[in-house]
Amino acid sequence: MDDYEHTDGHDHGHGGHHHHHDHDHQDVPADIALRVKALESVLVEKGMVDPAELDEIVDRFENRVGPRNGARVVARAWVDAEYRERLLADGSGAIGELGYLGGQGEHMKVVANTDRVHNVIVCTLCSCYPWPTLGLPPSWYKSSAYRARAVIEPREVLREFGLDVPGDVEVRVWDSTAEIRYLVLPERPAGTEDLTEEELAELVTRDSMIGVATVPAPPSPGGGS
Ligand code: FE
Question: Which of 41, 92, 123, 208 does the annotation list as catalytic?
Fold first, then answer.
C-alpha cells in the first residue's frame, strides 16, 4: 500500500504551483497504511469488497496493464519512425495517441537508448513512476538503496541487475518527479526484423523500460542457440 503516498493529498498532484519533492513523504505515514488496512478490513467484513478482487486490481496494475501499455508504445516506436520522432519530442502527446495517459503519468518524457547512451530512471526522493505506461512500481524501485545508489553508482547498480554497460556508453540517470515521469525507449534487439508490432511488444519487459535491463533477442525459432 506504499503507493498511497501519491494519492493522499501530498503535492504529487498538479495543482498549479511548482513545488518539488519534499522530504516528508519518502515513506508512507504509518497511520495512513493502518487506515487503509482498517478500511479494507471493514469493507471485507461487511461483504462490500472481495479481497480476491482487490488482489486482482493490484496485480493488474503491477503485472499486466501497466507494463503492457508501455511495451506497446515501445513496439510502435520501433516499427514507425515518425511515431518514434513524435514520442521523443513530445512523450505525453505520443503516448496520449495510444490512450495511455492518466493519473501518475500525465507528463511524460521518453528517453531513447542508443549504442552511445544508456538511460535509467529513478525517483530519488520517493517513488514517482509512470503508472499508465508501467503500472505500479516494483518494490526495489521504491527501496532507499536503489533510489540513492542509482544516482551515485549507476553502473554498479546496473551490473547487479545483470546489465554490464560498456565503458564507452554514457549512462544517463533521470530523476522522476511529481511533474514529470520518464520512460526508457530500449533498443530493438537484433533478429527481430520479421516480427509484427504485436510480437515485438511481447518482447518488451518492464525492466527494459526502467532502464535496468535491455530487451532480450527472441529465442531462435529453430531451437538452436
Ligand atoms: Fe517521487
Answer: 123
